[in-house]
TrEMBL record:
It catalyses: (6S)-5-formyl-5,6,7,8-tetrahydrofolate + ATP = (6R)-5,10-methenyltetrahydrofolate + ADP + phosphate. It comes from the Bacteria. This is 5-formyltetrahydrofolate cyclo-ligase. One of its GO terms (molecular function) is metal ion binding. Its cofactor is Mg(2+).
Amino acid sequence: MAPSLIWGKNMRSKKECRKEALARRALMSAKEREAAGRRITDFLRDSEEYQLAEKILVYASYRDEVPTYDLIEGALREGKQVFCPKIEGQAGARTMSFYRIMDPEELQDGFQGIPEPVVLQGRHYETGKNSRDLILMPGTAFDRQRRRLGYGGGFYDRFCRRAQGAVRIALCFDCQLLEELPEEETDIRPERIVTESGWI
Ligand SMILES: Nc1nc2c(c(=O)[nH]1)N(C=O)[C@@H](CNc1ccc(C(=O)N[C@@H](CCC(=O)O)C(=O)O)cc1)CN2
Ligand SMILES: Nc1ncnc2c1ncn2[C@@H]1O[C@H](COP(=O)(O)OP(=O)(O)OP(=O)(O)O)[C@@H](O)[C@H]1O
C-alpha cells in the first residue's frame, strides 16, 4: 500500500531534501561545526526541558552530525540518566531501543558504524510513563514548521509513538533548514528545534 502523503504542489521528494541538506551540512568546516555545536549545547542546557529531565535519550553523534559528546558528559556529571539508541533485529525487522550508559566509553561502533551502547542487564529504557523524559532527536533536514527527516529508517518515528509522554527536541545546524519538507502521516515532529541561532 502506498504511504499516504500530505503532498503539496511541486513538493520535492524526501530523498532529494535529505540529499540537499546533507550536502550543505558536509560543507561546514570542523571549526564551524564545533562552534555551532557548542552554541546548540549551551541553548539546550539553559532550557527548562533539559533542566527538568531526569532521563535523557540522546543519539551518539557520528560523522558531521550536531555533536552530542559534551552534552552526554555534562548530563552524566549532573547525575542525569543518559540513554543512547541501538538498532536491533535483522534486516526487514529492525527496531530502535535505548540503553543507559554510565560512561561515553560504553559506546562502541555498531549499526552503519554509528557508536551504540553495549547491552547490559538492567540498562534498557522502558517506554510507558515517560513524562519529563527528554528525547534529543538527530535529523538530516528540517523546516520552520518543525517537520523532520532522518536517514530514512523511520526509527525515531516509530520509537516516539511508543514514548508519547516524552518531550522531543531536535538538534540541527542552520544549514539543514529547508523551505518546506514533504511529510507522511507517520512522521512525528519535534516540539522544538534548537540550532546555533536559537529555538524554532
Ligand atoms: N548518531 C545517530 N544515531 C542513530 C541515528 C541517527 O540518525 N544518528 N538513527 C536515526 O534513525 C538510528 C540509525 N538510523 C540509520 C538509518 C539508516 C542509515 C543508513 O545508513 N541508511 C543507508 C541507506 C538506507 C536506505 O537504503 O534507505 C544510507 O543512508 O546509506 C543509518 C542510520 C539510530 N541511531
Ligand atoms: N509508525 C510507523 N509505522 C509504520 N511505518 C512507519 C512508521 N513511521 C515511519 N514508517 C515508515 O518508515 C519509512 C521511513 O520513514 P521516514 O522516511 O519518515 O524516516 P526518517 O524520519 O527519515 O527516519 P528516522 O525516523 O529513523 O530518523 C517510511 O516508509 C514510513 O512510512
